[in-house]
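In this section we walk through a basic example: taking a raw amino acid sequence and producing a predicted 3D structure, encoded as discrete structure tokens. The instruction is simple. Fold the sequence below.
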Amino acid sequence: MEEKTYLCIDLKSFFASVECAERGLDPFKVNLVVADPERSEGTVCLAITPAMKSLGIRNRCRMYEIPKDVEFITAKPRMHLYMEYSANIYGIYLKYVSKDDIHIYSIDECFLDVTHYLKLYKLTAKELAKKILDDIFNETKICATVGIGPNLFLTKVALDITAKHVDDHMGFLDEELFKKTIWHHKPITDIWGIGRGIAKRLARFGVEDLYDLAHCDEKLLYKEFGINAELLIDHANGKEPCTIEDIHTYKTKSNSISTGQVLFEDYNFEDALLVLVEMVDNLELELIEKHLVTNSISLSISYSKDIIKSTGGSMKLPLYTNSSKVLTQYFEEYYRKTTNPNYPIRRLNISFNNVVDDEFETLSLFTDFADEEKEFNMQRAVLDIKEKYGKNSIVRGSSLKEKSTARKRNNLIGGHNG
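The resulting token sequence is shown next.
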């Protein structure tokens, strides 16, 4: 089997770099923060320039964490603009490889399978990577970094760890180099797929780096992590069987759709319920639009400053439905049953689980068919109006209340100003 060659390209400090490009500034020399100045000092910076990172300021810091003696420009987030830049850069990738050989990992990061293109262009992997990176910079003034490797895992680690420490912003790893240079790298949380929770569990077995993990008793790992131990063992040895082709052809056994929001301030029990109803209403329209129904819901409520653990869970419904009236009723009942009314609320997340085609919708003996049809037609009309005139063209009466967030969020993209 032919060995694969992947590139993992990251657009460096993307949001901040876009703001610098728009202003004709060099992100490596100028201090710029992407954050909404209208929010509190505790607001999280979406991005900072490499110039600020070189001062020891961490990415995704809060505004108040920036040293007072550091002067910087504040740029309000413009998600439409960032999406436009990202789409244009995707167009650059398409100049070199087919869409079938691209996996978009996030708005500023993607994987390319260039295995069959190296012979076509008569270039090495580094030469092709440099050509793409130069093209991105010449077209957009955005600096990119790249990891190169024989599988997706090694490519991502080459990007995250190796590329940061070389002048040409290009990192390469194969299994041999991986064991020489990454096996003893610390902290282990720098490694793709190993978060603080997994690291803490591994530490119980004396595992502090990938070398320790590769030499850990596999029986212990399977007992602790179940089937997920296989992935950890593979990654500890620099192996990854999944390909971009596998990702494109993968189909989940069950599907869900979800939404969540962090509230602008602490909300009490009843005000948070108002927001929950708005969220259910909006997500339910997505079911209608996609001709889907659900028979399971999930709710997660997080409290201010994590003063108590999150509450909520999942609930199986006795029927498949996309009725706003029915789903709102179940969510409200579940909210009142599981949410602590004595603590301020700061985050809500909901999801419709096990969504299937609406041909599986369940009707009971007590279903009022005329009422069901009336509600469905009304929901379709709401969708049509929103599509034609905008999300705020028609809203619930309750969305005019002071604590409502629906109208403001309808103007956001990914939770941020467009």
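Looking at the output, two observations stand out. Residues 183-247 form a domain with the DNA polymerase; domain 1 fold (CATH 1.10.150.20). The chain has a mean pLDDT of 88. In the next section we compare this with other chains.
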